[in-house]
């Protein structure tokens, strides 16, 4: 799957549509969480700070550069723009970033626990076990650095006492990663509640399944293979 770049107008419209999907899928509430996608090598479209997704319009979306400076827009960009730009700078193949406050992922984040690699889809799409980044105040450079460090090549990370961040080559993939992460977190919480042992997939199996997804299955999903 290739990194998807949008024209500015298309990017803003796609972010609004993704915001509606986050509400529908109960991955965020109110104005919490944030969404961004790349327009080109230097510019990023990102949700504004403090605006609910139900009433968000394409005109509300803010354009920033990779340094986090506002290029265009009438609103203040998301307070988590440093996390977004840090991910784009660390992963040039990233085309979109989504920050959620979903219930089960947030529950594990509150315990400073990661999401174990116990189901195949989290392995295929995200790349294996999802770690929990060390706590730092929202909006800080420290949080951005902790986030990238804990990602460690994966497409998702938990933020201690906060929520989760996922990235993908496009908004659809980032949204899928957020859904699968929440599903895996829910399964992990259910398993922990039984008191029974949870069996994680082996590193070898993780590598095989993620490699297959990246090279073949993701392309089939897009009609490219």
TrEMBL record:
Source taxon at top rank: Bacteria
InterPro entries: Aldolase_class_II_sugar_metab (IPR050197), Aldolase_II/adducin_N (IPR001303), Aldolase_II/adducin_N_sf (IPR036409)
Single GO MF descriptor: metal ion binding
Any one annotated GO CC term: cytosol
Domain Class II aldolase/adducin N-terminal, chain residue ranges per copy: 13-189
Chloroplast is among the record's keywords: no
Keywords from the named record: Lyase, Metal-binding
GO biological process: one example: pentose catabolic process
Protein's name in the database: Putative L-ribulose-5-phosphate 4-epimerase
């Amino acid at each position: 799957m290739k990194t998807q770049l949008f024209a500015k107008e298309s990017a803003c419209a796609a972010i609004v549509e993704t915001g509606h999907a986050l509400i529908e899928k109960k991955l965020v509430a109110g104005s919490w969480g944030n969404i961004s996608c790349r327009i080109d090598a230097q510019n990023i479209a990102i949700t504004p700070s403090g605006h609910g997704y139900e009433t968000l319009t394409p005109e509300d979306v803010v354009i920033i550069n990779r340094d986090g400076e506002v290029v265009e827009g009438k609103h203040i960009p998301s307070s988590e723009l440093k996390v977004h730009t840090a991910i784009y700078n660390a992963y040039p193949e990233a085309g979109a970033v989504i920050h959620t406050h979903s219930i089960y992922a947030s529950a594990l984040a509150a315990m400073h626990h990661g999401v174990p690699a116990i189901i195949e889809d989290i392995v295929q799409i995200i790349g294996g076990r999802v770690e929990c980044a060390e706590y730092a105040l929202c909006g800080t450079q420290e949080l951005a650095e902790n986030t990238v460090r804990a990602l460690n090549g994966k497409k998702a990370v938990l933020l201690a006492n906060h929520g989760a961040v996922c990235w993908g080559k496009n908004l659809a993939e980032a949204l899928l990663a957020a859904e699968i992460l929440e599903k895996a977190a829910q399964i992990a919480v259910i398993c922990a509640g039984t008191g029974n042992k949870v069996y994680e997939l082996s590193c070898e199996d993780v590598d095989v399944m993620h490699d297959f997804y990246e090279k073949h299955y993701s392309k089939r999903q897009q009609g490219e293979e």
